[in-house]
Protein 1
Amino acid sequence: MAKTKEFSSLYELFEAIPDERAAIAYFRAIRWANGEFCPYCGHDKVYGFSNGKTWKCAQCRQRFSIRVGTVFEDSKIPLRKWIAAIWMITTHSKGIASTTLAHDIDVQQKTAWFMMHRLRHAARTRSFNRKLRGTVEVDEGYFGGKDSNKHRAKRGKTKKSLAVGMLEREGEVRVVPIKSTSAMPYHVLTHVSKDARLMSDEAPVLTMLGETFDHTTVNHSRGQYGDGGDGHTNSIEGFWALVKRQIYGIHHWVSAKHLERYLEEITWRYNRRDVKERFRVAEFLTRVDGRLTYRDLIAAG
Ligand SMILES: [Zn+2]
């Protein structure tokens, strides 16, 4: 299989992928890196048509495009524009607004909005079976409501969306939307290795975790931000600040219904902060399996 192309700018991307046929060839090299297969039955013998866009399965005889079974299925947007959108969403450190994407790749704003949500769907973390190790900071993040940036004790009673964040220092972050803080211990037990060192604030709901983990608590209300050593939750708090800057700064407002997808996008970017820009498009394209229809998107939440 040909070596996957790399790009260092949007300009290079368009030069390397000059037309739709080149975009299909590019995606094909990634999707079929381990050999061709039929998206309907999984059979490994398929015939390509001379148009370079259509294949037929030797077993189930169905015709298909390279998009079938991916988030691009049923989309009329050229794959070349999708690849440009992936470049933009993976290299702009705070993400991009759908209005910006619409303008830059020349599609309608509603189309751009749907594209972004499909890409967020693809960005879902799928490495959840690896438990977080080492020192792991745990904290909840609140979204929505005018006082969302205030500390817990100062917040009012306005309805907010909530998520638990678990951050492995020098490693990955995991974020899971929750209905109530009482769900936090369950997610910590699910995502964090029992031999990890846990850092959190003194939320009573988390005290039971001391039975399972080496658990250090930090008292923020007494103005104690760490003990001078490594007992702090600065990393996860920094992550929440990043999330809030993006959600309120770029998107201005995110409904509770779609919060999970925004969190997935931001988490994806954070966990690949050390992946060089030029590899990010190809890396993203390895994970676009699975459809997300407009109906699913609207019904979400
Ligand atoms: Zn087949």
Protein 2
Amino acid sequence: MSNSNIKKPVGPRAIALVGPYGAGKTSLLESIAHMTGAVPRKGQVASGSSLGDASAEARARQMSVEVNVLSTRFLDEDLTFLDCPGSIEFIADSFGVLPGVDAAVVVCEPEPGKTGMLRPYLKALADAKIPHFIFVNKFDKASGSLRGLLALLQEESETPLLLRQIPIWENGLATGFVDLALERAFSYGASDKVTDIADLRREKEARFQMLERLADYDEHLMEELLGDIEPDPSEVFGDLSRELGDALVVPVLIGSAARDNGVLRLLKALRHEVPEVSKAAERGGIKTSGDTVVKVLKTFHGTQGGKLSLVRILSGSLKDNQVLHGPGGDMRVGGICTLSGTQQSKKSEARTGETVGLARLDNARTGETLSSNKALARAAGPLHLPPVYRLAIEAADRKDEVKVTAALAKLMEEDPSLALEHHPDTQQMVLAGEGEIHLKVAIEKLQSKYGLKLSTKAPQVPYKETIRKSATARGRHKRQTGGHGQFGDVVLEIAPTPRGTGFAFQDRIKGGVVPKQWIGSVEKGVVEFMKHGPLGFPVVDIAVALTDGSYHTVDSSDAAFQTAGRLAMSEGMADCAPVLLEPVVKLSIHVPHEATAKVGSLIGTRRGAPLGFDGRPGWRGWDTVWAEMPQSEVSDLIVDLRSLTQGVGTYDMEFSHLAELSGKLADTIVANRKAA
Ligand SMILES: Nc1nc2c(ncn2[C@@H]2O[C@H](COP(=O)(O)OP(=O)(O)OP(=O)(O)O)[C@@H](O)[C@H]2O)c(=O)[nH]1
Ligand SMILES: [Mg+2]
């Protein structure tokens, strides 16, 4: 083969392993650790012995719940792998890591029914023009045609796929593969040993297709193909790295992480073809210069309170104790380390391209760009990941409340897709995030890391109430106790107003029967009453007029008129035909087109009203369905939506309006409120 395979070592590179849940990313990380000598013995996810997923929460579920880091050396180069969790509920970690890597490997299974799960990852990578491969893992279990799978994968990728390898089948099992760029066959087994290409015709055909695709972006190669001229290997390898580097094509490789099959070839492809860090810097709008520029990819909080920021050095170098400027302020680096699983190796400096942990960057947040040059510091971009699941939380022990708030702040720093919401009506503290497991893991971490226990329940829906009829009522407050008495007397007219008008108070007193200085007191009493109407909920959309009353020169007071106002309301509202109001939200539901009809029926079963649908902009083969739905029906909507869509369906929501609710459902809500 030509000397195109012999290349000068380049600077340290960072590669993300992303892709759907359970595809084998952490197993691939393990295989890479094993093959590059980073671990003495290969571990397994299933037996809880893998380098990644070391936390109690990950081990218990045998799934990744946050990014695993492995810095290792392959031949003469430094590579850092960032193994991201695949569950859609933890996708924030992938979004955090991707802006700082040189390339990503999208790991998937050879299952035609699961290709739709790749879309969120392929879309994010294509949008950001991040070079990426697809590694079809679990090929030890593959059957059926790779071509068929490729066609389905292509539907999920805006960027053309480029099949780099074809399997060698024996008795329905893949026993090796032909690398179409090298034109060599490898049989699976210890380090993929070279064998003969058995089916030359099939190889030639597949190779020609690969070259044709490359030639789409290389006129010279196209001319050669048209003229039946065999291109020089250096031209082919040159195109492979250039077109990967510009994210024009997505090379597809196959293998099995569990058996180390195809992993060596993957490593070699990464080594030869992944661009240097300057390309990632350029994507982030950073000109390489002497200035130190780092991107924060992830934030970890240790049990001992130590904060570690995982950063990629996009430009310049870094020394311990160096000062970095960030949007949150200046900070001094309080320790540098390389990471390999849970192991941290301290060092005093790091160079361009390295991915390292930095201690004590108190003012740094995930997504930010920090620099030695103040002018280059940048805030984190927005995370476009609306919460879709919520739980009301409470410290199991009341005296832990302050600690819980502090610990939650740390969890939210580690994971920007977690949020804490406080609703003024319900007075609940609500944890919002990407799904049930996401929140469960957060709550378990609170216990395992900080020893704090929480109790959880479904959040209350902020119902309100209003009235359907008008009424007039008198409130007379009179008390004679020893010295000073209390006296206030008012007549109120209560009337319904149109939806959304809130509350209006009118003073129609004539002849000073209620003196000016007590009018405000009456209104205060009315407002106080409105916090809990006859059904138990805040009252809205009413007008109250103060029409009459009387006072006492000695005994009348602010407090007495407030009480009188409250009394009149309590009398009058009962006669006003109170009715429950439930919040209705407007949903934009995003799903693959195949699921659109099913979403229509889902909306129906949840008392929703469909408002139409259209293609989702920028998402080929997806629709956005608009609907109105009572907020109470949305609480676990994501669960159904995901089961209809291989987990990729999602929604945005915004408050729309309050709608009257009566009948059995309303009676139950009111009864539950009274019992609470
Ligand atoms: N047969 C077979 N099984 C594999 C292979 N690679 C991984 N697995 C199994 O697939 C399961 C999931 O593997 P993981 O490595 O945890 O997958 P992951 O992509 O990291 O999963 P998440 O991080 O939860 O998204 C485990 O039970 C692995 O043993 C493979 O090459 N062949
Ligand atoms: Mg994993």
